[in-house]
Amino acid sequence: MSAAEELGFEPTPLRATTGPALNKHNLLYGVHAASAAWMNPRRKIRDLFVTESGLEALEEAFQKASDAELDRPEPRLVEKEEIDKLLPPGAVHQGVALSCAPLAEVEIEDVVDAAADDPLALVVVLDQVTDPHNVGAVLRSAAAFGAKAVIVQDRHAPPVTGTLAKTASGAVEAVPLVRVTNLARAIDQLKAASFWTVALAESGARHLHEVDLSGRTALILGSEGDGIRRLTGERADEIVRLPTGGPVGSLNVSTAAAVALYEVARRR
Questions:
Q1: Is the pLDDT at 19 greater than 60, yes or no?
Q2: Within this chain, do residues 34 and 140 fall inside the same structural domain, yes or no?
Q3: Three-state secondary structure readout of the chain
Q4: Total structural domains in the chain?
């Protein structure tokens, strides 16, 4: 018996499909990204393209979505090569590609309002981090350590493509990527909501572990090339550094974010 039959599906082969359903910005791929989207009641799913092995990998997601009575389309059984054609060259899709509508946008005001009831609210602010792999990895760490949002400047941040979602490993569904027009103004809004805003830079006077992180906290990180911009640094309550002591003094921004998020979680 095939995986499709065991799961009670009657998948249909992939036919020629055009239009917004196959817009590559709305195609998620990989087991973790697709599973999280499939189980997210806020996500509208248009199509699911899967191989036999992909069906098996998504069995738990199918069951949970069914238990929650989510409206989901019938999977479309395809060969691996057909999914390859839908995605960027070299995409590691694990036999799963999912066409969906974008999630509803979350505004900075929503983050501030939610923080009013959370004295330990934690957010990450990214200043001109444009690489989708880095943003995806930061989202994954943010989800792991309980951050409520990742805030980016709209014109200096990548769209939520399949590449970003695959790297985030399902975190796109759990942690909102909040886009703002003016990052300095967003930091001011966080400060007005009693967030202690801490920017990470090699020029920091103190180490991160020396700073009080007991209340609402916003961790601000810049791009690997330029770091945080002058105006961003001026808006922060404090600029700190990580206590690196090896021959390489800097970390990839997503690694630095993971270290900083861990430190906040450890202290709490």
A1: no
A2: no
A3: CCHHHHCCCCCCCCCCCCCHHHCHHHEEECHHHHHHHHHCCCCCEEEEEECHHHHHHCHHHHHHHHHCCCCCCCCEECCHHHHHHHCCCCCCCCCEEEEECCCCCCCHHHHHHHHCCCCCCEEEEEECCCCHHHHHHHHHHHHHCCCCEEEEEHHHCCCCCHHHHHHHCCHHHCCCEEEECCHHHHHHHHHHCCCEEEEECCCCCEEHHHCCCCCCEEEEEEECCCECCHHHHHHCCEEEECCCCCCCCCCCHHHHHHHHHHHHHHHC
A4: 2
Say what the pLDDT of residue 202 is.
86
Give pLDDT tens digits for 52-107.
999 999 999 999 999 999 999 999 999 999 999 999 999 999 999 999 999 999 99
* Spatial distance between the Cα atoms of 22 and 103, rounded to a whole number of angstroms: 16
* Region at 194 (left for phi over 0; alpha for psi -120 to 50; beta for the rest): left
Phi/psi for 186 (5° steps) reads -65, -40
What's the mean per-residue pLDDT of the chain? 91
Q: What is the pLDDT of residue 24?
A: 53
Q: What is the CATH number of the domain that holds 35?
A: 3.30.1330
Domain range enclosing 33: 3-100
Quote the Cα angle for 149-155-158, to 5°. 60
